[in-house]
Write a structure and sequence with these properties.
The chain is an all-alpha fold and 195 residues long. It has helices at residues 2-57, 61-78, 82-92, 117-120, 128-145, 150-158, 161-174, 180-194. The protein has one domain: Orthogonal Bundle (Lysozyme). The longest helix has 56 residues, at 2-57.
Length: 195
């Protein structure tokens, strides 16, 4: 009996296989079009942000493009609003890659190597992509520890409620570069930081 069921399942699978493949082929162009549109929007946002960084903070255009791309990549990887990462960078280092703080904080996001030894071991924190990756990973960890409370995570990252409020306000300035969804994200962040 089990052999008969096995043969029936095999026959049904062989029949449905080509049909499922045909349905997938019909939907493939639509999915590819949606992916291309999302990619175009992301590229456009990256260019807008790099233009803003270049004009407002005096960063060379090529370097601004590199920073913007690193921010977009880290934001996607760690599920963080890009405007939030840009706000941290603008407050912490004013987009100066080689910035150094009194407590050893280094780079764009002012990562403190002594506080995050395991994470930053063998990383050049003065390199934009590496610094943004490390800073975003740290912030993501704080967000998880705070059970999604971005305000509390920002307090942990910067050391005070005032810091969290300042970052939230600055993030609002960057949010229009990412469309209406990002503005809603930063509004929620500002409310959380103000609690």
């Amino acid at each position: 009996m089990s052999r008969l069921l096995w043969l029936a399942a095999l026959t049904l699978g062989a029949t449905l296989g080509p049909m499922q493949g045909a349905v997938a082929q019909e939907r493939a162009p639509e999915a590819a079009h949606q992916d291309a549109a999302a990619s175009d929007a992301s590229v456009e946002a990256t260019h807008q942000v790099s233009r803003l960084i270049s004009e407002k903070f005096g960063v060379a255009r090529a370097k601004a493009e590199q920073i913007s791309a690193a921010v977009m990549s880290a934001a996607s990887k760690y599920s963080l609003p890009p405007a939030l990462l840009l706000a941290i960078i603008s407050v912490e280092s004013r987009f100066k890659e080689k910035a150094r703080g009194s407590n050893g904080a280094t780079g764009l996001m002012q990562v403190v190597p002594a506080a995050h030894k395991q994470l930053v071991r063998n990383i050049d924190l003065t390199e934009a992509k590496a610094n943004i990756e490390a800073g975003s990973a740290i912030l993501h960890g704080y967000v998880q520890s705070a059970r999604g409370d971005v305000g509390a995570a920002l307090k942990s990252y910067g050391g005070s409620k005032a810091y969290a409020e300042k970052i939230s306000l600055r993030a609002k300035a960057f949010a229009p570069e990412f469309g209406s969804g990002a503005a809603a994200d930063t509004d929620a962040d500002a409310q959380t930081a103000g609690d």
